[in-house]
Amino acid sequence: MDPDSIRDFVEQPDPTCEPTIAIIKHAKTTGKRLGIFSSSFNPPTIAHLELMRQAKNDFSLDEILALAGKTNADKISYDCSLEDRLSMLSLALDDFPEASIGLSSHAFYADMIDAISRVYQHGTDLHFIVGFDTFERVLDPQDRYTKRYHRIFNGRADALDYVLTRSQFIVAGRAGAGLQNIEELVRRESELTRDRIHFLDFPADLGEVSSTNVRNRLKGNLSIAGLVPAGVEDFIQEHRLYTT
Fold first, then answer.
1. What is the pLDDT of residues 11-61, one digit of tens each?
2. Which residues pair with 36 in a beta bridge?
3. Residue 2 clears pLDDT 70, i.e. is over it
4. Bridge pairing between strands 99-104 and 21-25
5. How far apart, in whole angstroms, are the C-alpha atoms of residue 202 and residue 206?
6. Which end of the chain is more exposed for a tag (fewer CB within 10 A), N or C?
7. DSSP collapsed to 3 states, the chain
């Protein structure tokens, strides 16, 4: 997509209003089973791509929605603009016909569900694809996030029930966090929670490929070949991203 089109999309979702999602690129194939992978994509890596592909294949998902956000649950600033991150994401998914690209006004899954329901047809089966660390934040055992949701809930249990009644989670084990670790987290939750959580055995070597590592290598003037898609590497070099 050209920069002007992306800039127009970036201006649409408003974090101060009700949750919305702007679809920047539509998948060529769609269906009832939708996987949603929300990330900052700062930048998109080969691990991001493989996680989406493996989740699609292992759980028979018809479409993947790669979802960037105008806000983040924990971060305030980024090393590069949202426009650049969306441009890189578009390049990364150029040969992934089952992938759509979206931009969410809100950072939390409870609010994303409401926004997605306004874009996708009724009856769409939602599967959030998350890493182990993100899954810990979803369960939110210390109830740090409930009051920050746009939708009002009567505490953390009410919010978790709302999310897991309307969606399922595919949790990728990475950096040593495998099935046993995930089971330990959900053991204290309700039966509903356990039934709606699925484990994705993600290769350990890819689990170690992170956007943070890519940024650090660029700041150290080291090669990132093989860590990001070729088109993304070219974009980073052309625009001199992450060098300071």
1. 776 778 899 999 989 999 889 999 999 999 999 999 999 999 999 999 999
2. 65, 128
3. no
4. antiparallel
5. 7
6. C
7. CCHHHHHHHHCCCCCCCCCCEEEEECCCCCCCEEEEEECCCCCCCHHHHHHHHHHHHHCCCCEEEEEEECCCCCCCCCCCCHHHHHHHHHHHCCCCCCEEEEEECCCCHHHHHHHHHHHCCCCCEEEEEEEHHHHHHHHCCCCCCHHHCCCCCCCHHHHHHHHHHHCEEEEEEECCECHHHHHHHHCCCCHHHHHCEEEEECCHHHHCCCHHHHHHHHHCCCCCECCECHHHHHHHHHHCCCCC
Of 7-11, 73-77, 83-87, the one with minimum mean pLDDT is: 73-77
Structure tokens given for 41: 């994509």
Domains in the chain with CATH codes: 3-239 (3.40.50.620)
**Cβ neighbour number for residue 24 with a 10 Å cutoff:** 21
177-226 pLDDT, tens digit each: 577 777 777 777 776 567 889 989 888 788 788 999 999 999 999 999 99
